[in-house]
Amino acid sequence: MGTFIARRLITLVVQVLLVATIVFLMLRLVPGDPARGILGETASDEQVAAMQHRLGIDRPLWKQYTEWLGNTLQLDLGKSLISGRSISSDIAIRITRSLELIVISVILSLIVAIPLGTIAALRANRLADFLLSSLAMLGLSIPGFVIGTIFVLLFGLVWKVLPQSQYVSWTDDPIAHMKLLILPSLTLAIGNAAVILRMMRSSMLEVLRQDYVRTARAKGLTETAVIRGHTVRNAINPVVSIVGLECATLLGGMVIVEQIFNWPGLSSLLLSGVLSRDYPVVQGVVLVIAVLTIVINVIVDILYGVLDPRIRLS
Amino acid sequence: MCYSTLLTYDRDNNLIGDLAEEFGWVEDTTYQLKIRQGVTFHDGSDLTPDDVVFSLKRIQDPETAATNAPFFAEVSDIATGDDNTVNLTFNKPFAAFPFILASTNSYIVSQKWIESGVDPKTEMMGTGPFVFKERVPGVSITLEKNPNYFLPDLPYLDSILYQPMPDDTSRMTALRSGSVDFVDYVPYTQMGIIDSDPNLVFESDSISGFGWIGFNHETDPVSDVRIRQAFAHGMNRDTMVETAFAGYGSPITGGLIPEGMIGYSEDLEGTYNGDYDAAKALLDEAGHNPLDIDMLSTSSYSVIQRPAEAAQAELTEANINANLELQEWLTFRQSVADGTFPVHAWGTAIDYGDPDFLWNYMHSTGNSTKWFRFKDDQLDSMLEEGRFSTDEDLRNEIYHDIQARALEILPWIYTIRRTQGEAMASYVKGYTHLQSWVPITMREIWLDQ
Q1: Domain chopping of chain A, boundaries
Q2: Is the Cβ pair B330, A44 closer than 8 Å?
Q3: Potential cystine with B156: which of A286, B249, B446, B449 (Cβ 3.0-4.6 Å)?
Q4: Interface predicted TM-score of the whole assembly (ipTM), two decimals
Q5: Closest residue of A to B68, CA-based?
């Protein structure tokens, strides 16, 4: 296990360096200039040049790159070109908000999807399976922004049970915070649950066809014991992998949900950074997401071993 | 809200003093402002004429890269005078300059505060009606009443909490569900709903914001004036207002200067408004009937995209098939600056309350004119005459002629004005919507509840 983690850490450094370099270069290849964005529509070329100088983006690329890399290695992600705030502290604040939403939505989707996926597999090609599979297909086909907007309109405007309001932190008002969490985490959970349900169903069907399941049944084990002891645990590995991937994707990929519910997370920071060509912000956020994605993958690999001792982490 | 300008506007859109209690041209090339006494910054220090001189010179300094710097190009000296005054000396008279002093880009700051090394991007400290209290990144900005504000009894509100809500639906739902009292940037799709709700009020204008079709005059065939005239004739502006904004706007069929501003020319109304036959005849004459052409716009702002799509639909009636490409905002701006496309569709709002705003789009040194790669000596000299003249009657005449000339040679084509405004709960009192060039201060608002 020690060698495994050490090897993954070395790969992590190489991968992160690669991601950082690619992001740095790609951002500068995208047309659009942060100086023009800051100055507004009527700025002259001279004003744009003066602003580029102030922001330091008129220096040679290699100089900007080496300086940024040097600072990043010292864990200093720099300051936003637009707001002037420290990027590290902005990311630190926002990542906790994003993780909170992701963790809750993933737990919700697991609680719902694993039992339902199991039931669908056990009742394969019967009414229950048909209903559950249709439900999953519905959850997959309706985009998150449609579900989110319907939630906002129904709960916020028609029934007024969960009004739209500003983000309140956990420490300021835990009850208001919990209320605010409900709709965005449900919106995210619906899509996730649909994926997990389908994955669990197909994985279970595969395991149910295995010889050892037949043997277990032939031994006279009860159906519950067969399911709990022999099938669910074996069927869950692909689900773990999917959940890991989903978490990593959501870190920077829930812009729409964050916008609809005014949830000031990491995706919104990334989006505003990209739109205003705030290079250091985008670089910082992408770097953090890259590191977390790799860490999540390592955790998934370790979990594989825990769930299935036959998989040796060597 | 945290800062003040030297001049501002009253509810009738006239210039009045803010930090300046008296102001005006004392000579053709000298503008004098008498600074109000007893005004204090939020840190308790007194506002002095030196702070005003410092603030204006800071705008003028190329190092600052200030938005209003080009308007200070003809200012040769800024100095304090007797009796708490500040004098600006110009190389030539500049009639529109007072409007520049009233813009949101001409705030007065404390010299001591700026020189102490603060970052004005992350902090705010001025003489305005509200004091900056807190910023929670991505969540809110809190302002509190300035108890020492220089106008007695104002502001009425104790505090203001700003929340950024980028999504149109959630912003409007927040207002309709009572979570917030006031929202800006009301999307046109919600204007009807707000208008019909007795608990809400919509304050708007259809004057400031407008859309345009711009050309790269160095590319064929739009370098031919007949083609540009075909574009101008080929769009029915009334239909465009319906298509783009469900009727929430107004057509521009003549000059761009709105009613009430110097140079408004009623006689030019109706010059262009969907005469498809004339458009086709011009295309024939120019040898390009039908015309297939690439047109660029942006998908980032519906107030730009919608008129662009409406224009595209209209132009087909005149045998002009515009292949519309939509780009993200900063990419779009770069493409326009680079002149990549022969035609682009854009929209903006009038910058300040004087017809001199046309300089930017029609004078060969104007920043937008550079995108059009356009120069007309006659327009240049008329715009210079308008800028440097102080006689109002003469200016009315000059700007009429400028607009007539522009409609003849078409450096660009204005299409429709959009309705833009703010919505609020009916208990929000004292708010008056003014044009885009007037800073919102919120100082006279109160809640009747």
Answers
A1: 88-275
A2: no
A3: B446
A4: 0.73
A5: A43
